[in-house]
């Protein structure tokens, strides 16, 4: 009986989280921010490739301006070829080399941003949803893939 009660509570929480929607005005503002590449994603969860997922307690974010990516993210995982001392990881500012955007499914927009940092080529994939949630996949030539999730803001 206790298991059924707990499963019901968890299911209700999941259903409640999935139905959060932005108002039309908020969604239009978000679409404008994404189109102009002028937004910040406050990150609260990370999913390293070969390690357990972690909730983040410190303030981490990625800020995108029309010509620069400002990354303030932690890195957990295997690094193959990094500068002596480990470098700065995913904590840097770099000019955007390439960017593209496309709409996927009905409620997802994919924004792809490529940058170079400390001799490494990084690609940030922003999966932006209508409810303001954002998943970020970071691919690197010199490090294992890592993913983050958070919320978009201006």
Descriptive report:
The protein is of the alpha+beta class and 154 residues long. The protein contains two helices and nine strands. The chain has a nine-stranded antiparallel sheet with strand order 4-3-2-1-9-8-7-6-5. Strand 6 (108-117) and strand 7 (120-129) form a beta hairpin. The longest helix has 17 residues, at 2-18. The radius of gyration is 17 Å and the shape is globular. Mean pLDDT is 86; it is low at 4-8 and 10-19.
Which secondary structure elements does this structure contain, and how are they paired or packed?
Layout: H1 2-18, H2 24-35, E1 39-48, E2 54-64, E3 68-73, E4 90-95, E5 98-104, E6 108-117, E7 120-129, E8 133-140, E9 146-153
Antiparallel strand pairs: 1-2, 1-9, 2-3, 3-4, 5-6, 6-7, 7-8, 8-9
Quick recap:
With about 150 residues, the protein is α+β, with helices and mostly antiparallel strands.
Keywords:
single chain, 154 residues, alpha+beta, 9-stranded antiparallel β-sheet, 9 strands, 49% strand, globular
Strand percentage lies at over 45%
- Structural class comes to alpha+beta
Mean pLDDT rating: 86
The first-to-last residue Cα distance is: 46 Å
Strand order of the largest sheet: 4-3-2-1-9-8-7-6-5
Radius of gyration equals: 17 Å
Multimeric state = single chain
Report low-confidence residues grouped into runs of 5 or more.
Answer: 4-8, 10-19
How many DSSP E strands? 9
Order of helices and strands: HHEEEEEEEEE
The residue fraction in helices comes out at 10-25%
How does the major sheet shape up?
A: 9 strands, antiparallel
Q: With helices defined by DSSP (H or I, 4 residues minimum), what is the helix count?
A: 2
How would the global form be characterised?
globular
